[in-house]
Amino acid sequence: MFEKFLQAIRDLAYFSEQARRNSDELKDLRTKHEETALAVQRLAFEIQRIKENEAHEREKLTLRVENALLKIRDEKNSKSSRSEETSALKFVLTGFENTKYQ
Q1: What is the number of domains present in the chain?
Q2: Can you give the residue range of the structural domain that contains 14?
Q3: Is residue 7 domain-resident?
Q4: Is residue 92 one of the residues assigned to a domain?
Q5: Three-point CA angle 71, 72, 74, nearest 5°
Q6: Is the pTM of this model over 0.70?
Q7: Is residue 7 over pLDDT 70?
Q8: In whole angstroms, what is the distance from residue 55 CA to residue 43 CA?
């Protein structure tokens, strides 16, 4: 009987220690999970910022090209009337204006 009592106390001590270890491990895992979630949030924010920057750069490039084409058209118009524009320039201007950038 006394043996069973001692074994029960040993089991109780063992399981108490296991529960404490599990609790500590769970705290560590929660901390790591929170850190990982924050890192993922930062990465998502950075990806969004990069996408927005790239969109702005595409828009600026589009405006530069459009400006250059308009300058070419204006130079051409100053040398001749509007009806004498080359079909290639018209194609480039209309093709460029109809292009949508995402």
Answers
A1: 1
A2: 2-97
A3: yes
A4: yes
A5: 60
A6: no
A7: yes
A8: 18
